[in-house]
Amino acid sequence: MPTxxxxxxxxxxxxxxxxxxxxxxxxxxxxxNVWPLLLLKLGAPFAAVAEVIFLGLxxxxxxxxxxxxxxxxxxxxxxxxxxxxxxxxxxxxxxxxFFAIAVHASIAVLxxxxxxPTEEFRHGYNFSFVPTVPLRxxxxxxSAASAGICEETGFRGYMQHPIExxxxxxxxxxxxxxxxxxxxxNKSWATLGMVPIVVGAGxxxxxxxxxxxSLLPGMIGHILMDIGLFxxxxxxxxxxxxxxxxxxxxxxxxxxxxxxxxxxxxGIVLMAISKLRRESALxx
Length: 284
What we know:
Number of domains: 1
Largest sheet: none
Radius of gyration: 20 Å
Helix content: over 70%
Structural class: mainly alpha
């Protein structure tokens, strides 16, 4: 039987975990939904200005600025506010760029096994009310920036970091990736085949935050990923995926190319994360 002290310690750990999940979800999802409301109410040009101001204030607060002063150090720690060296920036940016490439390549591979469900992917992402193509691109970029900044802060920062401190990186990344996947399951594009891609993206972003001790590389990778998702897969502004499944076309060069790009990109991401972890350990 566990002793009273052991039970008390377990309750403390569980309380930290539950609070980290709650805070992470609130920090991520409430702030990420400010941009859609601004866009609908104000229109693209004015909403963009308001969102940039909001994101600036958001980053200032979650990084430890403003009230309450008692939470300042906890907010800074959850935001992973440490500075990156030049070498860490190199590996972080490399991981971010190839993370986005790997995600898009994995989606392309998925929809060579099954037909691309265009209607499901386009449902809820109609930017036709935005009057011009340049303004639609502006909406795409700010949609990606809002999601990348707010979700990385919530999931990989406020949720994952406190759990890392109590349970270690593997448990923390598993928790943050699971909830990252769960909050996206209500999307119409969240088909069965997309679930492992979303989970995998969450795991890579979690490893990147842990290895670099910073949210910035993950934010950049997340934003780059989402620009492609919004512009191509979700709205069609950048084009349409019309390639048929290999069951209809046979194994062709495009299919082999997509698999190769995915494998190479994933390998580069994993290598960069490993290098980052080594560098951050040396500079700690």
